Amino acid sequence: MAVPETMKRWDVVVVGEIYADHVFSGFQHWPAPGEEVHTDHYLRELGGGTVNTACGLARLQRRVRLVGLIGEADREWFKSRLKSFGLSADGLRCSPLDTGVTVSVSTAQDRSFYTYPGANRRLTELLDDPGTRSELIAARHVHFAMPLAADLARRLFPLLHKAGCTTSLDVGFSPDWLQDPDNHWTCRAVDYFFPNQAEARLLSGDESAEAFRDWAQSVGLRHAVIKLGAAGAAAIVRNDLLRVPPPPVHAVDMTGAGDAFDAGFIDGVLNGESIEHCLQRACICGALCTTRIGALEGLPDLFSLRSTYEQIYGP
After folding, report:
1. Under a CB-based contact definition with an 8 Å cutoff, are residues 144 and 170 in contact?
2. What's the N-to-C CA distance of the chain in angstroms?
3. 194 phi and psi, to 5 degrees?
4. How many other C-beta atoms can be found within 10 angstroms of the C-beta atom of residue 184?
């Protein structure tokens, strides 16, 4: 039985992999093998798509529950930093394993990541816990920022749909997951699927939006969205591609742009917006995120989102 929205405790539960990010940016080119390059731009920050999207939604004044695993030594740091976004750390569980770590290296055009999973290895165990499932069904929307195992997805999605939750999924660059046909069921079961071009290429064999559209239709996805970087984004609507350009910005760091995009799109879904308007809000959030170093400082608040929307796409 679906839980009425008025009885839901949170607008969104964001669940998935959580990291301590070490962000190096401002490079003019990628180093050749054996070459050392230097930058004056370094940031240690909370990271991972889970944290980034949760903070993005909190900036847009959504009631957000963040669920994941971290190492005990980092709890106070997470608690303090999340508080600055109006987020509680109560949904984070401490693991005997260390917090996951990601090193992000970026130019103004692109970025690469080096990752140690750490406590994230125990996410499946966490999501099978009855207490965690009670948290998930207490939300209007559940966003998964992780490569959700097929058997776990089959246990979770019927429960969430029965509770009246809408769902979204961003697996990140997870080649094994993306190339495994067993995960097509998950792609169909989720309400909104958010790959970028590199991830879409692993699904369809090509980075073009057209190739992704053909793949999504062959698999039977309900709402498929592809993030196109500087070209904006596209969604499949009535068997055709709906494209939306991003606002013009001076990008300094691409870290977290896709996660901010997810937050903007989900915010639109919660508002009952059309797919086109959801894409526009998402493109604004993703673009503005790139104007500051790191994934969090450039996240727009509701005023910035609305004012940019009116300037770029009209009232």
Report:
1. yes
2. 38
3. -120, 65
4. 16
Contact 111, 105 (CB under 8 A): yes
Closest to 286 measured CA to CA, from 270, 300, 301, 272: 300
How does pLDDT run across 9-59, given as a tens digit for each residue? Answer: 999 999 999 999 888 888 888 888 999 999 888 888 999 999 999 999 999
C-alpha span between 258 and 184 (Å, rounded)? 22
Distance in angstroms (rounded) separating the CA atoms of residues 279 and 242 = 9
With tokens 């770029």, the residue in question is 312
Q: Classify strands 139-145 and 10-16 as parallel, antiparallel or unpaired.
A: parallel
Cβ neighbours of residue 303 closer than 8 Å, sequence gap 6 or more: none
- The two tokens of residue 179 are 């190339």
pTM, entire model: 0.92
Residue that has been written with the tokens 């499949």 in this structure: 236
> Distance between CA 99 and CA 96 in Å, rounded?
9
CA distance 133 to 27: 43
Polymer length in residues for the chain: 315
* Those residues with Cβ within 8 angstroms of residue 135's Cβ, 6 or more apart along the chain or in another chain: 13, 65, 67, 91
